[in-house]
Amino acid sequence: MDFLLTTKQDATAAKRFFRNTLNARNSSTPSVINADKHKAYPPAFTTLQQDKALPQSTELQQNKYLNNVTKQDHRFLQRLIKPGLGFKSFQTARRTIKGYEAMHILRNGQVICVSKGDVQTQLSFMAQVLGVAA
């Protein structure tokens, strides 16, 4: 039995995905859509532009390894979560993972007022955010 989708099915699925994303309550009209290099995206994108669901000024940028960047950035999370053997509740998981991500962002120097290698500034910044004495 062949589980691969045909090109027509792929294009239909891509159009449906784009439409669902564009019709979401929290989305606005994008100027650029980033996607991987799947062959179904360009025809679906063109069809949406012809149907006026997307403006002609919207661009489709395809990058083969676009999803890998996100996976690489979250690899540190996986290393921290797995030894914990899971969480007791969703709220605990959400709060803990947010804390892990905040510390990772701080260590990577992605906070404007804090340099990447400046541990003292990182400590005082976290003390300020948490409202504790450094």
From TrEMBL:
Pfam families, per the entry: DDE_Tnp_IS240
Transmembrane regions listed in the UniProt entry: none
Coiled-coil region(s): none
Name of the protein: DDE domain-containing protein
Residue ranges of domain DDE in the record: 1-109
